[in-house]
Design a protein that fits this description.
It contains 13 helices and 15 strands. By secondary structure, it is of the alpha/beta class. The structure holds pyridoxal-5'-phosphate (PLP).
Amino acid sequence: MMRYKYRLMVPGPTPTPPQVTAAGVLPVIDERIPPFAELFAEVGKNLRYVFQTGGDVLVLTSSTTGALESVFQNTCSPGDRVLVVNNGAFGERLVDLARAYRLDVVEQRQPWGTPVDNDAVGRTLAADPAIGAAVCVHCETSTGVLSDVRRFGEVTRNVLSIVDAASSLGADDVRTDEWGLDVVVTGGQKALMTPPGVALVAVGARAWRATETARNPRFYFDWGRAKTAVETAGATPWTPAISTIMQLGAALSLIRDEGLAEVFARHRRLTLATRAGLRALGLRLFAADEVAASAVTTAVMPTGVDARELVTDLRERDGVQLVPGSLDHAATLLRVGHCGYMDGNDVLIALAALERGLRRAGQKVPLAAAMAAAQEVLEGR
Ligand SMILES: Cc1ncc(COP(=O)(O)O)c(C=O)c1O
């Protein structure tokens, strides 16, 4: 049974603003008529704004994983050597995905909680000219660590650079063109405030060139077909998630109205407030201050508290949905998502619920301490 009011605070899916919800209940239109083409053109323009690119941003009907799969399909051939940074659950998934496509993966395995070691990436690439592409995760959603993908763009100058920005795009700065990133991938259901169903891929000039020689099979996710459909018909090659694209359009308009700089500043305030609050609860933060992402904050559970049980308790008792850690860290890490349609009051509610939940779990936590610490940040002190 769900509580009367459900408050979704995970790093995707995220709640949708009323304008986005409303866009989803409009009548479905045919994707082959001018009104859809107009909407799709507007979505494309606003996607170039949020990806900070003058290049193509393809809209795929899938989750982010599908879009990541499309990257290996469209830019690689079996046996191609690629460097994949694995510093968390999503880095690990990229390794698995690349191997599923029979790529020759050079895995840069790093401890959870560390950002991408760009110097090591640069050294590996310099030592092995056979590597044709390098892949990393910008915000490793399993740890809350944000990596320096500007530097990643620099050290990968001579190969195809691919960034999974699923939980960073729209929360932290991603300058696709300026930073020389060839492929950037995200999903609609996180900072872009859209229900699950669409994924976005920014494809730069070098990535398009790679598609010309890539021999991996592709059809549904064929980028060339997607680009041709946009250029010739203002549409997609196959039936897209029309309602979700209408919702994405509404969400992108909101982001444009707020302005990217303010969107990033708001997310940063939420991260800092959450971190101050969790610290006031006596919790250790998993990501260091210098690498803390703006979309999600990860805390280490005190001895004796299982994050999975705490998450269930908070949902059942307070209607607040947080998420435990991933894989081996499921019991020991707790993640608070604060990306997308979020403000300071959402953070305060999550912290208040946590105060109560931790007390129910037997922890000596003073009431309102986390709230006070977070309020100080939100007030700008
Ligand atoms: C960094 C990152 N990559 C990939 C994914 C996979 O996204 P999806 O579930 O939309 O396929 C996620 C989802 O949380 C993510 O955070």
